[in-house]
Amino acid sequence: MKFTKLLIENAHGEKLSARLDLPVDGEPAAYALFAHCFTCSKNLRAVTNISRALTQRGIAVLRFDFTGLGESEGDFADTNFSSNVADLVYAARYLEEHYQAPAILVGHSLGGAAVLQAAGELPGVTAVATIGAPCDPEHVSHLFDDAREEIEEKGVARVKLAGRSFTIKKQFLDDLEGQNMQERIRNLKRPLLIFHSPVDNTVGIENAAHIFQSALHPKSFISLDRADHLLNDEADSLYVGAVLAAWARKYIDLPQDNAAAPKLPVEANRTVVQTGAVKYVTDIMANGHPLTADEPEEVGGGNRGPSPYELLAASLGACTSMTLRMYADRKKWPLEAVTVRLTHQKIHGKDCRACETQNARIDQFEREIELLGPLDEAQKQRLLEIADKCPVHRTLHSEVIVNTRLKDS
Fold it and tell me: Among 33, 39, 162, 315, which is most exposed with the fewest C-beta within 10 angstroms?
């Protein structure tokens, strides 16, 4: 995933560590701002998956660490919910000043409550989405129940959250109690998408119901079924990202027939591929169309998409079926559908009777073609011959030149 590291100054002059995820190719059609969960960071795997889904649809995503968390400056003990909201507003204004005002706010857990609170201060925001968000930020105070007496008496206590120790001051609890979320939600006046799991043991599903009831239309609710609060199962965060990207299309200026980059002319013939630091997950923008490639788990990948050779087989299969469709249409033959099934493997040259070389390992594709429709045998045999004339097939059998250079830095 293409990205830029940023430092954003908050209200106290402290530097917030941020990352701007960008579409692989072309200018973003819109920008989103993501607020992470309580005591988490911008680098949570679920956040990365959701961000990738949006960038594949042409939406840039700014994610940052709140003050005192992750790689950001400041002391977490001196922060509270109000300061988190202020961080969000400063991040949004940074986007507006240097790039473009965020059109979408996305918040996870307490970050969801923060985006609901911050939206009223950001007129450029056109849509808001929450994931496992509490209806009232005071909900998180139950996490400190074991230390509440000490916090009330001494004004401060060490609290263990998600296996890590944090200093919580009384001002944090006081700030939570002073929030009025219901009024903010009722006055949101933006499309709202609520994601929540009915088995969320950290923030109960009743919170989603309260947010939904308080908000005005348009509003939508998506059940995350068996997901946990942090979306630790990768399938859950991938689902959230896919649904969020599709929903966002309705409320921001994206082409409705293709939510990726603006349409490019056929002659542009431009494909951009980028592999980041997450195993072998690779983002592809093929002349404006987003794709994902990966490697199987057994070779160290995440199986998030087809492997390069599977994409090559898909290219051959697509070219074959399209070529047969064109030929049958030109001949006015009753071909109703073409199905092409392919497999690929490496074999030794000596095992191939039709190969000129006998020593090297060569690539072998097995291609099975199924023709549907009332075709006679002569027509079927002719289409079988035409399959070998598809452009990709001919490319694979011809000499190919690949000119490679490093881009000037």
Answer: 162
DSSP symbols for 157-206: EEEEETTEEEEEEHHHHHHHHT--HHHHHHT--S-EEEEE-TT-SSS-HH
pLDDT digits (tens, 9 = 90+) for 192-226: 999 999 999 889 999 999 999 999 999 999 999 99
Question: 223 phi and psi, to 5 degrees?
Answer: -80, 135
Beta-sheet pairing, 30-35 with 104-108: parallel
pLDDT of 228-268, one tens digit each?
A: 999 999 899 999 999 999 999 888 866 544 444 455 565 56
CB 288 within 8 A of CB 260: yes
Strand order from edge to edge, sheet including 289-293:
271-275, 282-286, 289-293
Q: What is the CATH topology of the domain spanning 308-397? A: GMP Synthetase; Chain A, domain 3 (3.30.300)
Q: Could you state, in order of their start, the residue ranges of all structural domains in the chain?
A: 2-140+176-248, 272-299, 308-397
Q: Give burial (CB, 10 Å; 0-12/13-18/19+) of 277.
A: exposed
> Would the CATH topology of 2-140+176-248 be identical to that of 308-397?
no
Would you say 65 and 36 are in contact if contact means Cβ atoms under 8 Å apart? yes
**Interatomic CA distance for residues 330 and 319, integer angstroms:** 16
**Lookup: tokens for 281:** 């997950």
Highest mean pLDDT among 164-178, 242-256, 391-405: 391-405
Distance CA(240)–CA(384), nearest Å, equals 43
Residue 304 pLDDT greater than 90, yes or no: no
Strands 15-22 and 59-64 come out as antiparallel
Both tokens assigned to 166: 């944090």
Mean pLDDT of 367-392: 94
343 pLDDT band, cuts 50/70/90, is: very high
Give, in words, the CATH class of 2-140+176-248. Answer: alpha beta
Confidence of residue 179 (pLDDT cuts 50, 70, 90): confident
**What is the distance between the terminal CA atoms of the chain, rounded to a whole angstrom?**
19
